[in-house]
Amino acid sequence: MKRSLGLASVLLLFMVAPCLAGFFDDLVREVLPSPTQQDSLDNSTIVKGLKEALATGTERAVTEVAKPDGYFGNQLIKILLPDKIQQAADILGRIGYQQQVDDVVLSMNRAAEKAAPKAASFFGDAIRQMTLEDAQGILQGGDTAATRFFENKTRPQLFAAFKPAVARSMDQLGTARAYKEMIGKYDVSPLASLAGIPSLDLDTYVTDKALDGLFIKVGEEEKKIRTNPAARTTDLLRKVFGK
Fold first, then answer.
1. Domain span at residue 87?
2. Which end of the chain has a smaller Cβ tally under 10 Å, C or N?
3. What are the residues whose beta carbons fall under 8 Å from the beta carbon of 136, sequence distance 6 or more?
4. How many Cβ atoms sit within 10 Å of the Cβ of residue 44?
């Protein structure tokens, strides 16, 4: 029991931020155990504590990617053109159309940033529905066990919710129009490849890349509390990790 208690305490504030906002406030109040319970954690309280930690971590990840330049300003998750289309974009850049290429890339990332807040409710549902078995798998898993849990539980639903939002944003931003104009310029370029440009479903492509980036950020938040002493900002974390 002591070993289980130690693991639960380590993960209790896994990915904890100083404060919560919006949607996640209610979720955290719902699942956070009271201070008097923390000294005698049973399985039920372990699950509650882990849910609180996951709620905080996912809130931080969603907030990070949803802000301006959340995708565009982060080279790890910035959405770029597919390789074969990037080859055409490179040619266009060399003959004076770099601004058009840049506009397409920027608008794809802006669409992902606008869609990102939709992830909050799906993460919340996955957390509320977490079972003891799920919690044990996360406690006993590796550095990204929680991230894998979220991706397995929510990715199909997130894709269905993100894609219409991405499509609307790209329509408002003129992404499809800018992309077609970019490809049109390539088609008439004297440097254009005889092989032509592969077709691309922009809505699907940007949605998939947006979700890839979101889960990368969730994974970063998960690893931070597990491995970085500077992230252990509460008395409980200092007590657990101080030795």
1. 2-241
2. C
3. none
4. 11
CA atoms within 13 A on the CB side of 68: 0
Three-state secondary structure call for residue 2: helix
**220 touches 147 (CB < 8 A):** no
Of 84, 99, 57, 92, the closest CA to residue 214 belongs to 57
Number of CB atoms found within 10 A of residue 18's CB: 7
**Residue 96 carries which side chain, given as an amino acid letter?**
G
**Exposed, middle or buried by CB within 10 Å (0-12, 13-18, 19+), for 160?**
exposed
**Lookup: tokens for 94:** 């060399």
Conformational region of residue 189, where left means phi above 0, alpha means psi within -120 to 50, and beta covers everything else: beta
* DSSP-derived secondary structure letter, 67: S
Q: What are 213-234's pLDDT values in tens digits?
A: 999 999 998 887 667 766 554 4
**Segment 229-239, tens digit of pLDDT:** 665 544 443 44
Task: Give the chain's domain count.
Answer: 1
What DSSP assignment string belongs to 152-220? Answer: HHHHHHHHHHHHHHHHHHHHHHTHHHHHHHHHHHHHT-TT--TT------HHHHHHHHHHHHHHHHHHH
